[in-house]
């Protein structure tokens, strides 16, 4: 488990490069997967519920029918009523924290600036409607509902215009058909979300983008998911808006020195590995630090429920990276451009300005990634597969459109008219030129 690579040796660098290549490969949305998604999108666009049912039967439940697509409001309320009072209180605290943080981040309309007689400004307005994808695979990710829907609400999207899609568990053999977790349904009720659909995969993205007899189409689709979900989002972008992020399998980079609390660092690595598959990178310049943390990972592993999945993720998707110093550690962290970055080092505050690429940064070994996953305030829907190099996680910004404003209250000066007309005619657009000249005195 957990191979260790000294990147200042040829063999170690080659081992690390292979792991990084696999990490980048998670964003390869092409080939057979692309062909399959194109087929799904076309089926749902042209056949509506029938297309959705076709693929839900193929991949989730052979007996799935159109009557199961929409979740009744009574089911949402019933699920909420079955929830334990303490979990309700914890969920409400999470919702409150995320709402407060996202409202704090939400940009305000800019004051106008006057340039050459024009008053110029910028307005921020929310999209009209949003569809949130909540995965329903190995784990019950009701937290993803909070981390996508609440930022939309903070941005001003009306709660009645927020939809949720989440697939029921895959049916195996003759067992009874499963359903979306009551925690997901109950959290929808807490948030006031009434448009909930028990569908998933590329067919759910298509239904939100095009609309069906049962599913209302939306103006933007957001959320994490597997390769097929991410590819479907990319393909419908333009028909509808998307979050423009690749939010795939979970990842962590931890930079650790000899002051790090070994038990805390090990626990964070295991927490990400249990996502099945999680991808973990431990970066340090002291072999003793790596040895202690790897030993602690082994010690804690036996206490976890998903031992096989965690061990497989650590062995095949992860590695410890031995570097020569802090500067090199920072370089590797920026190269990996990970979803979660934990700075378990004594001088974390001084290092922070040097981190250019990370989805979210957790400062100090007393700050668990799980706080970001569930509770602190920033959304846990973050860029993966090294895409933090150029993209960001979901926030209230995601749901806002920027609109510039221009106003010549007192008309344009003669020189302004002349300059604009000259530029327009240089492009061969005399109509543009005359539309300016006609406004002379």
TrEMBL record:
SUPFAM superfamilies: ALDH-like
Binding site residues for Zn(2+): 272, 275, 373, 432
Binding site residues for substrate: 250, 272, 275, 340, 373, 427, 432
Keywords: Metal-binding, NAD, Oxidoreductase, Zinc
Any single Pfam family the record assigns to this protein: Histidinol_dh
Keyword Secreted assigned: no
EC assignment: 1.1.1.23
Keyword Disulfide bond attached: no
Cofactor(s) listed: Zn(2+)
Matches recorded under Gene3D superfamilies: 1.20.5.1300, Nitrogenase molybdenum iron protein domain
GO molecular function, one term: histidinol dehydrogenase activity
Ligand binding (NAD(+)): 133, 203, 226
Cofactor note: Binds 1 zinc ion per subunit.
Sequence similarity: Belongs to the histidinol dehydrogenase family.
Protein name listed in UniProt: Histidinol dehydrogenase
Organism ancestry: Bacteria, Pseudomonadati, Planctomycetota, Phycisphaerae, Phycisphaerales
Gene: hisD
């Amino acid at each position: 488990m957990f191979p260790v690579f000294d990147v200042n040796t040829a063999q170690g660098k080659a081992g690390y490069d292979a792991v990084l290549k696999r990490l980048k490969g998670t964003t390869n949305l092409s080939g057979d997967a692309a062909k399959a998604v194109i087929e799904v999108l076309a089926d749902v666009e042209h056949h509506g519920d029938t297309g959705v049912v076709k693929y839900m039967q193929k991949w989730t439940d052979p007996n799935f029918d159109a009557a199961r697509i929409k979740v009744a409001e009574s089911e949402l309320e019933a699920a909420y009523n079955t929830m334990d009072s303490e979990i309700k209180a914890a969920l409400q605290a999470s919702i409150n924290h995320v709402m407060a943080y996202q409202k704090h981040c939400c940009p305000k309309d800019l004051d106008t600036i006057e340039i050459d007689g024009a008053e110029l400004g910028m307005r921020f307005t929310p999209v009209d409607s949003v569809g949130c994808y909540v995965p329903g695979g190995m784990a019950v990710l009701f937290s993803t509902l909070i981390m996508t829907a609440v930022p939309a609400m903070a941005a001003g999207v009306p709660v009645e215009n927020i939809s949720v899609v989440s697939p029921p568990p895959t049916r195996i053999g003759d067992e009874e058909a499963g359903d979306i977790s009551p925690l997901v349904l109950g959290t929808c009720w807490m948030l006031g979300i009434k448009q909930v659909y028990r569908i998933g995969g590329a067919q759910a993205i298509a239904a939100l983008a095009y609309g069906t007899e049962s599913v209302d189409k939306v103006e933007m689709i957001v959320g994490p998911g597997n390769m097929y979900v991410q590819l479907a989002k990319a393909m419908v972008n333009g028909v509808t808006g998307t979050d423009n992020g690749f939010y795939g399998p979970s990842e962590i980079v931890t930079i650790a020195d000899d002051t790090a609390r070994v038990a805390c660092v090990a626990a964070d690595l295991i927490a990400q590995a249990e996502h099945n598959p999680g991808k973990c990178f431990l970066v340090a310049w002291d072999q003793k630090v790596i040895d202690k943390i790897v030993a602690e990972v082994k010690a804690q592993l036996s206490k976890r429920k998903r031992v096989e999945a965690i061990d497989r993720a650590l062995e095949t998707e992860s590695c410890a990276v031995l570097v020569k110093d802090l500067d090199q550690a920072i370089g590797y962290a920026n190269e990996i451009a990970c979803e979660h970055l934990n700075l378990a080092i004594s001088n974390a505050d001084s290092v922070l300005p040097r981190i250019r690429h990370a989805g979210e940064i957790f400062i100090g070994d007393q700050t668990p990634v799980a706080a970001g996953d569930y509770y602190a305030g920033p959304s846990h829907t973050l860029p993966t597969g090294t895409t933090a190099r150029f993209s960001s996680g979901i926030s209230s910004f995601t749901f806002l459109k920027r609109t510039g404003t221009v106003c010549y209250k007192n008309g344009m000066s003669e020189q302004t008219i002349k300059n604009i007309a000259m530029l327009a005619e240089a492009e061969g657009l005399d109509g543009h030129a005359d539309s300016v000249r006609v406004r002379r005195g």
